C-alpha cells in the first residue's frame, strides 16, 4: 500500500478538503477608532460597514480633543475572525483615521452603557420595579403616579437583564447610548 493512499471515506489528508481555515464562529468585538473631527468622517466609517454588509451592534461618537480636533468612534460589531480582521484593515485605510484598536483582543477593557428605561404600572408591579431598580443600582430620574424612568449604567448584559425583568412589570420604552469602552491599565 502506498503511503499516499488514505482510507476511503476520509478526506482528512485530501487536497480536495475545502474546509475554511478560519473559524465560522461569530464573535463580537469592540473597536475604538480615533479619527479627525471633520465633516463626513463618521459617514465614511459607517459607509464602510453598510457597503460591505457588516453589522453594527452599538455605535458611540464624541469629540475627545477639542484643540487637536480628534473624535473617538466606538463600534461593537459581530463577524467571523476573518471579517473582523477585514474591518480593522479597511478602517485603517480611511485617510482621517489615526488609530484602530480592537479592545476585545488587546487586553482587558472597561465597557459601559447608559440606558433610560420607562416602566408604567401601579400597585405591586410598581413596588417590584422599585425593588429591582435598587438591586441593579438604577436611579429614578422621573416619577409620576403611573410611571418611572430609571437611569442605569453598566455593561450591555446588565442593561439587557434589567430590561428583561422590567418587561412583565410594564416596560414601556428604552433609550440606550451605545457602548463606551477604554482599555484597562497603562
Description of the molecule:
There is one protein chain. The radius of gyration is 23 Å and the shape is elongated. The protein has two domains: 27-102, 2-Layer Sandwich (Alpha-Beta Plaits), CATH 3.30.70; 109-183, 2-Layer Sandwich (Alpha-Beta Plaits). Strand 6 and strand 7 (147-154) form a beta hairpin. Residues 1-14 have low confidence and may be disordered. The chain is built from four helices and nine strands; from the N terminus they run E-H-E-E-H-E-E-H-E-E-H-E-E. The strands form two sheets. Strands 5, 6, 7, 8 and 9 form a five-stranded antiparallel sheet that branches. It has a four-stranded antiparallel sheet with strand order 2-3-1-4. Helix 3 (124-135) packs antiparallel against helix 4. The chain has helices at 41-51, 81-92, 124-135, 156-170; strands at residues 27-36, 55-65, 70-79, 97-102, 109-120, 139-143, 147-154, 171-176, 180-183. It is an alpha+beta fold and 186 residues long.
Distance between the termini: 61 Å
Count up the helices: 4
Output the CATH homologous superfamily of the largest domain.
ACT domain
By helix and strand content, what is the structural category? alpha+beta
Shape, please? elongated
Task: Say what the CATH topology of the largest domain is.
Answer: Alpha-Beta Plaits
Strand/helix succession: EHEEHEEHEEHEE
Query: Low-confidence parts lasting 5 or more residues at pLDDT below 50?
Result: 1-14
Return the average pLDDT rounded to an integer.
89
Rounded to an integer in angstroms, the radius of gyration calculated over CA atoms is 23 Å
User: How would a crystallographer describe the biggest sheet?
Assistant: 5 strands, antiparallel
Strand content: 35-45%
Quickly give the CATH architecture of the largest domain: 2-Layer Sandwich
Integer tally of domains: 2
By DSSP, the count of extended strands is 9
Amino acid at each position: 500500500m502506498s503511503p499516499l493512499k488514505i482510507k476511503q471515506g476520509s478526506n482528512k489528508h485530501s487536497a480536495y478538503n475545502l474546509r475554511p481555515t478560519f473559524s465560522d464562529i461569530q464573535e463580537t468585538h469592540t473597536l475604538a477608532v480615533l479619527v479627525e473631527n471633520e465633516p463626513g468622517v463618521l459617514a465614511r466609517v459607517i459607509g464602510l460597514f453598510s457597503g460591505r454588509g457588516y453589522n453594527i451592534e452599538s455605535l458611540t461618537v464624541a469629540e475627545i480633543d477639542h484643540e487637536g480636533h480628534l473624535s473617538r468612534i466606538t463600534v461593537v460589531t459581530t463577524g467571523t475572525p476573518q471579517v473582523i480582521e477585514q474591518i480593522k484593515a479597511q478602517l485603517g485605510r480611511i485617510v482621517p483615521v489615526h488609530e484602530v484598536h480592537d479592545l476585545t483582543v488587546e487586553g482587558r477593557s472597561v465597557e459601559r452603557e447608559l440606558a433610560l428605561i420607562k416602566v408604567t404600572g401601579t400597585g405591586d408591579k410598581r413596588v417590584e420595579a422599585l425593588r429591582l431598580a435598587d438591586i441593579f443600582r438604577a436611579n429614578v430620574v422621573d416619577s409620576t403616579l403611573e410611571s418611572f424612568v430609571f437611569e442605569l449604567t453598566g455593561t450591555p448584559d446588565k442593561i439587557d437583564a434589567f430590561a428583561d425583568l422590567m418587561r412583565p412589570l410594564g416596560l414601556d420604552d428604552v433609550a440606550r447610548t451605545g457602548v463606551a469602552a477604554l482599555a484597562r491599565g497603562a
